[in-house]
């Protein structure tokens, strides 16, 4: 237990450092991005090299921006403002935000919402951040044309369950066991902070999150809330 405590303190410390750096980097990055947009206006469309380099700079600035967002999200102490609301509505709203992306890649979406769910105290903004992270992971794991994202809600005894499944590349049991670790990533340009954030958010809602996966077959996440009664 004391080893866990040391580990927790270390994580809190790392989080604090990450947060400070992220804040410090954000302002100059915003300035850089704005200046870049200005510069883009000045580059004549027929100067190919200049436009190529411009795109490289802008892609990399975007990548730094994403890292900063992930760092800030993952290390933020979660202060919730929960409001009793419909889980189904919140899931639909979040899914709508990635539908363009799914359509662009010709991926299918299957949604089934139980109509008898009790309202759950949820912080809408934070819960949406969690769902978006999971949907984007699913999209990144699937192949265009073949991808199918499935989203179900249902009741089981005193529990409300949200299931998010994809038929993407799946994970080994080794990957699965590291899934929620900060900075664990299987991607070339990943931050490995997405699911750390997701888990923080779900846990601060007193929910549970579990994953199942099979290489080549896909991955399922189960988010579970106990209903009061
Ligand atoms: P990132 O997306 O930046 O890599 P995450 O914390 O969101 O960080 O995810 C960590 C890793 O877990 C991913 O890099 C990937 O290897 C694995 N992973 C997460 N979700 C899925 C999924 N739906 N299918 C397959 N692998 C996944
Ligand atoms: Mg991610």
Q: What is the mean predicted local confidence, pLDDT? A: 91
Distance between the termini: 33 Å
Number of helices: 7
Strand order of the largest sheet: 2-4-5-7-6
**How many beta-strand runs?**
7
Percentage of residues in helical conformation: 40-55%
State the shape.
globular
Residue share in β-strands:
15-25%
| Ligands present | adenosine-5'-diphosphate, magnesium ion
- Radius of gyration using CA atoms only: 20 Å
**SSE order:** HHEHHEEHEEHHEE
Low-confidence stretches: none
Major β-sheet annotation: 5 strands, mixed
By helix and strand content, what is the structural category? alpha+beta
Domain Histidine kinase: 20-229
Protein name: histidine kinase
Q: Which key features would you list for this structure?
A:
single chain; 229 residues; alpha+beta; five-stranded mixed beta sheet; two-stranded antiparallel ribbon; 20% strand; binds adenosine-5'-diphosphate; binds magnesium ion
Question: How would you describe the overall organization of this protein?
Answer:
A five-stranded mixed sheet has the order 2-4-5-7-6, with helices on one face. The chain has a two-stranded antiparallel sheet with strand order 1-3. The protein has about 230 residues and is of the alpha+beta class. The chain has seven helices and seven strands, in the order ααβααββαββααββ. Helix content is about 50%, strand content about 20%. The protein has helices at about 1-40, 50-75, 85-95, 100-105, 125-140, 175-180, 195-205; strands spanning about 85, 110-115, 120, 150-155, 160-165, 210-215, 220-225. The two termini are about 35 Å apart. The model has no long low-confidence stretch (mean pLDDT about 90). Magnesium ion binds near residues 133, 136, 137 and 194.
């Amino acid at each position: 237990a004391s080893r866990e405590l040391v580990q927790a303190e270390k994580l809190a410390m790392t989080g604090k450092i990450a947060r400070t750096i992220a804040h410090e980097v954000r302002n100059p990055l915003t300035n850089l991005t704005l200046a870049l947009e200005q510069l883009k206006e000045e580059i004549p469309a027929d100067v190919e090299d200049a436009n190529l380099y411009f795109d490289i700079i802008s892609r990399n600035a975007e990548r730094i921006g994403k890292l900063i967002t992930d760092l800030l999200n993952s290390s933020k102490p979660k202060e919730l403002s929960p409001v009793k609301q419909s889980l189904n509505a919140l899931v639909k709203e979040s899914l709508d935000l990635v539908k363009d992306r799914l359509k662009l890649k010709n991926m299918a979406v299957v949604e089934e919402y139980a109509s008898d769910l009790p309202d759950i105290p949820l912080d809408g903004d934070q819960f949406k951040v969690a769902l978006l992270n999971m949907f984007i992971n699913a999209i990144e794991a699937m192949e265009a044309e073949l991808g199918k994202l499935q989203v179900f809600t249902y009741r089981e005894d005193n529990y409300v369950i949200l299931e998010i499944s994809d038929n993407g590349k799946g994970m080994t049991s080794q990957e699965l066991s590291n899934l929620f670790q900060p900075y664990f990533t299987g991607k070339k340009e990943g931050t490995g902070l997405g699911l750390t954030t997701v888990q923080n958010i779900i846990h601060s809602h007193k929910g549970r999150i579990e994953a199942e996966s099979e290489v080549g077959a896909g991955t399922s996440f189960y988010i579970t809330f106990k209903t009061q009664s």
